[in-house]
């Protein structure tokens, strides 16, 4: 669990300070915590999660739509699926230290819920819902620019995309093709890990090359490059 | 098919005039139309539909969240499902005369696609996506205020909600209960249609009453009133 204070982190890293503190508290509160603290009058995070889920979907959709003006809706949908999902939201909840700030019931705490992806996803959405209400769409977009959207350039979401299947689907949409992967090189790096280089060709024509720690990773990188080359045409 | 000119209607009824006419054209263009008009350089509606779908989901979610501060997420979700669906969007596409404005391929036209709910849903979403890009979120909200959101007060979405099942689920969540519907009255109206009045009681206690053109409709109205009474508590 993160030892960083979430509210200090929000302020120092993103210059965000909630006007309505109750909204933030609601986003961080799990139902069983309220059952154990009947003196508290607040609500749990579920209504804010309902809102934040839709805000996330809309924000990511609008960003992808504008960033990739030449992608068709199938490519946009695929990228959105990779971004708007449990593992992605749980990851970014940890990145901004939301995990340590959740107000959890004792039983849930003992069961390890604080590190469970499904809870972290809910809390991420609830937090985004609270942020949207308290600070508006522009501040949400700014936070996403520095987290999810930046991660596109760092190829974070590539792990969730099966580029080899996607390339195959795309090439075969125009008829039967012969897709071949070849391993071009295998090196040992100074840190004693291996690096593989792979190429992909279609009907004998080279269309992409990539590198990775395994043959599988190198082929995936080659397929990704081939997709990119097809997009740029 | 509507004989009203869509763009004139937009201007006269909602004071909306597109700055970027190409965006509106794209939202109204079906793929086969482009296949038949290779001289046209534009795109079909599918990218804008991808955007508009998310804008609709977010707009309806935010509206329901703010309008019903005491509803829990289950109630909000149920209402959103009734509002964000094919039959609903197709209905409002016809209301604003979108149906007559679609640029459709000849084959699709002959197959009656212009009156197909699934196409009208797509075109509604694409139009909302174009409106959002061209005019911004406030204008989208204004249009929805005068169409979908107003229809809540006119009980338009009630047809999509099974109030009797919902009431039963809600009452039984707290243990076994005895729910009973009784028909209180049956009248003949001046136009020779019938009007029924029904009541619903739980464990012998009256909790709602409603009227309708059939016993079934009257019981549904009674269940709806009972749900409302439970909400107001």
UniProtKB/TrEMBL annotation, chains A, B:
Enzyme class at the top of the EC tree: hydrolase
Xref: InterPro entries: dsRBD_dom (IPR014720), RNase_III (IPR011907), RNase_III_dom (IPR000999), RNase_III_sf (IPR036389)
DRBM domain segment(s): 162-232
Biased composition (Basic and acidic residues): 214-223
Protein name stated in the entry: Ribonuclease 3
Cofactor(s) essential for the protein: Mg(2+)
Subunit comment: Homodimer.
UniProt similarity note: Belongs to the ribonuclease III family.
Keywords: Cytoplasm, Endonuclease, Hydrolase, Magnesium, Metal-binding, mRNA processing, Nuclease, RNA-binding, rRNA processing, rRNA-binding, tRNA processing
Residue span of region Disordered: 202-233
Active site location: 53, 125
Entry binding sites for Mg(2+): 49, 122, 125
EC number(s) reported in the record: 3.1.26.3
Protein's job: Digests double-stranded RNA. Involved in the processing of primary rRNA transcript to yield the immediate precursors to the large and small rRNAs (23S and 16S). Processes some mRNAs, and tRNAs when they are encoded in the rRNA operon. Processes pre-crRNA and tracrRNA of type II CRISPR loci if present in the organism.
KW tRNA-binding (keyword) present: no
SUPFAM superfamilies: dsRNA-binding domain-like (SSF54768), RNase III domain-like (SSF69065)
Pfam families, A to Z: dsrm, Ribonucleas_3_3
Catalytic activity of the protein: Endonucleolytic cleavage to 5'-phosphomonoester
UniProt-listed SMART domains: DSRM, RIBOc
GO molecular function: ribonuclease III activity
HAMAP family found in the cross-reference section: RNase_III
Subcellular location: Cytoplasm
Domain RNase III: residue ranges: 7-136
Gene: rnc
């Amino acid at each position: 669990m993160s030892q960083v204070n979430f509210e200090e982190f929000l302020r120092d890293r993103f210059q965000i300070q909630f006007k309505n503190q109750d909204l933030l508290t609601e986003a961080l509160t799990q139902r069983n915590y309220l059952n154990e603290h009947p003196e508290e009058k607040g609500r749990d995070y579920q209504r804010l999660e309902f809102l934040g889920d839709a805000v996330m979907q809309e924000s990511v959709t609008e960003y992808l739509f504008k960033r990739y003006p030449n992608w068709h809706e199938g490519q946009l949908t695929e990228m959105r699926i990779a971004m708007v999902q449990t593992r992605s939201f749980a990851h970014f909840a940890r990145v901004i230290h939301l995990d340590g700030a959740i107000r959890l019931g004792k039983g849930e705490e003992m069961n390890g819920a604080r590190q469970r992806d499904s809870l972290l996803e809910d809390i991420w959405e609830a937090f985004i819902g609270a942020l949207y209400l308290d600070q508006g769409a522009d501040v949400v977009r700014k936070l996403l620019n520095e987290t999810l959207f930046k991660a596109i350039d760092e190829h974070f979401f590539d792990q969730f995309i099966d580029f080899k299947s996607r390339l195959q689907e795309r090439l075969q949409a125009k008829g039967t093709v012969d897709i071949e992967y070849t391993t071009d090189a295998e090196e040992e790096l100074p840190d004693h890990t291996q690096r593989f280089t792979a190429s992909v060709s279609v009907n004998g024509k080279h269309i992409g090359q990539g590198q990775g720690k395994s043959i599988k990773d190198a082929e995936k990188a080659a397929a990704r490059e081939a997709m990119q080359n097809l997009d740029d045409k």
